[in-house]
Amino acid sequence: MSRTVQLLAALAAASLAFGAVTTQPASATASAVCSVGVGAVTGSGESGSAVLATMPPTWSSGLFVNKPYPAPVRLSSAIASSKNGEGDYDVSGYVVLGDTLYNTYSIVHEDGEIMARALVRIGGGWSSYVALHRSSYSAPGMLPRNTVYGLRRDGVLFRWNAANWGQKTSYPGFSAVKSMALISATATYDTFLANTRGGALYTIHIPVTSPMKPVVKLVRRSGWQGYEAMLAQKCGIYGTLLIGIDTDTHAGYLYAVGHAVGTSTVIEPRGKVPGSFGSAVYFRWISQPEPPPFGE
After folding, report:
1. What is the tens place of the pLDDT at every residue in 204-235?
2. Helix (H/G/I), strand (E/B), else coil: 281
3. Among 48, 49, 50, 102, residue whose Cα is nearest residue 73
4. Which residues pair with 81 in a beta bridge?
5. Domain boundaries, the chain
6. CB contact at 8 A, 37 and 285
């Protein structure tokens, strides 16, 4: 089998594995410090590391990928990484390069050098999009669900089935949204936490049924306009750890968010994240395996 065929097969496997459900011992879940993976595209490459929910927040070690793409990245979905049997990292996700969406898979050495790469073109027309997200879910007895969302500049939110890109649906009305973070991925719905340019914070609950009919619920009326990017990760059974990134001031702030229940949702500030957030593109870095989020 040629190296190209091997890479394409691995790319397909990585897409399915992205949403795999895993379980952890209760003791490990209770004692572990929550963290959220922060991915960033810099001028020289792509980095991924985790911010721990300590007081104040601290960083864990991460992975840097040297020159992962042949062109500048405009948008990135969550990127998943896991150690393979040879001690290298399998890294996969969706990126927009210029006007085109790609599915990407790389084998990366621990020093950041790419050993092999597959870049599969999905389609063009992405220059008018301002956000790209991916949600996946699987459970025993069901086919994995792999869903891609794109927010267009005019406020239309699109959804695709990544197993069949012809299955597209959309819904208008999101032109005020500044950034979005996935906080729930279940068999029947996805939920995003979204901030607006006016400073409000909402949940966008999206059933997986078609046509797409999102349910928007207010969480906070003001105070959230400063974040150009938000990244979220499951914390505990029902909670979410959230980072808001202000690229104007190059600052990041950490929050512990309770299960989303509208304006009664508990949001606890955890402090400013050390370091500078000066990259143009941020995304969630996922270290597999991890359980799906259930923040709403």
Report:
1. 999 999 999 999 999 999 999 999 999 999 99
2. strand
3. 102
4. 91, 287
5. 3-21+33-287
6. yes
